[in-house]
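Entry for the shared binder. Reason: the reviewer on the internal report wants the predicted structure included alongside the sequence.
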Amino acid sequence: MLSSRTIVSCVARYVFSKHVLGARLQSTSTSAEAAKTAILRASLQHIPKLGWSVGSLKAGARAVGLELNEDLFPGRELDLVEYFEKKCNADLVLYMQQLRTEDEASKLKSKFVEEAIEHRLRMLIPYVEQWPQAMALKAYPSASVPALERLALMVDDIWYWAGDRSTDFNWYTKRALLAGIYTSTELHMVQDRSNDFRETWGFLDRRMEDVATFAKYRGQMDTMFNSTCEIINSSISTLRNAAGYNLWRW
């Protein structure tokens, strides 16, 4: 039988290992994550010269006085692209929240969406010359799914802050259309040499008009379909009444 001293000793060791060592491990993990974020943030300023590369990560680490621990960056340059896109998406949400506090509730959804897309794309301007490299990196098999998830989250946020609360199939249609508009405008932007990317914003405006036309046409088709159904149902009821079918239970 264990003595009370032995039991107390075992309990003390358990508490120490669970709480003290656990706290140390958590602290180490938090410090590592903070170091990683600091390096990624500092690396952005080196992208115009070094591109989306490990070289930019190393320069960022030197800028904050740290050694680059490659274990923190298993995706290497892809980690830098991911950090940048997540940061841009988070900044976009803050921008849209601000729009909603500036008496923007009356603004058309399409106008709000267009402004949001332009604001998000303007975040690429400091790195637009190197952005094709980032686009190529996102096309890697290991990176394509996370990249699509970030795009899906971004367009969902845009529609949400634009006031869309649809729960039917339109939810998917709107987000797929907006994802297509964003990616096509992004591709146009990296080839645009006009002043302040005027051609890009014109391209975006035309794409939004196309979607508005599509939505209007679809709405007309839905109205026509519903009217046709009503006419058919009315005709059937008339025929039933004429034939005395309403005496039956349907």
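Summary line for the report: The chain has nine helices and no strands.
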